[in-house]
Structure formats: structure tokens, C-alpha cells
Amino acid sequence: MDDCIFCKIVRGEIPSFKVYEDDKVFAFADINPILEGHTLIIPKAHAENLWDISDDDLTAIHRASKKIAGGIREVLDPAGIACLQLNGRAVNQVVMHYHFHLIPRKADDPELTMTAWELVPGDMEQIKAVSEKIAAAI
Hints:
Blueprint: H1 5-10, E1 18-21, E2 25-29, E3 39-43, H2 55-76, E4 80-84, E5 100-105, H3 124-137
Antiparallel strand pairs: 1-2, 2-3, 3-5, 4-5
């Protein structure tokens, strides 16, 4: 896609701090990092979100994420890594090109709000009904 910032990064039209590249994916440092080592992994082929990405590219993203997480572990020795992927403006997807975040976290780093929600029991009948509808749609 001509005007997509991530497509421009893949084509080398915009600079980035490349972390990893293969024939399907490109990974680079997030320039607005949540924490040190925050890395984005994107498919080279433009896909807006999870609904649009090909199965092959999605598989390639997750295979690459394991390799990259290994590098992050070796260099930064995090206590954990948050894996985050947003789909659509309603969940604050800003760049409309599929991207997978790896966010390493040390034990004393600030809490990541996306990993710290309150557990509140749901309505089991409603959960069952929606689950059955989704299963039927699949």
C-alpha cells in the first residue's frame, strides 16, 4: 500500500532500527517504546488486521516472534514479555497494518495496564450463549 508507513519501512523509504528480517516479515524497534526493547513485527505484505492477514504471514509472524523473543531474552534478561496485537481503531490500533508487539518487562518495571485487569466473574449463561454462537460461526 503506497501511503502505509509500515509498508514504507519495509521498502526502505522510511528509516527504522531493524531487528530481524526474512522473506515474509520485518521486525524493528518501536520508536515510541513502552519499555526498553519494545519490538514490532510486521508482515511484508500489507494486511490491515487479524481478519485480513494471510495464514502464511500470520504463521511467519509468530515463528519470528519466538526467535526475536530469544534475542530479547539474551540481551535484556526480562522477567517476562508481553505479546500484544490490536485490531481496529476501537482498540487503539493506530497504524492500519498488522503489527505484533513484543514488550519485555523487568520485575521492577512499571505495571503494564494491558496485563493488569481486574478479574470479575462473568454471567455464565451469557458466556455460554456467545461461545456457542462463535463456535457455530466457525
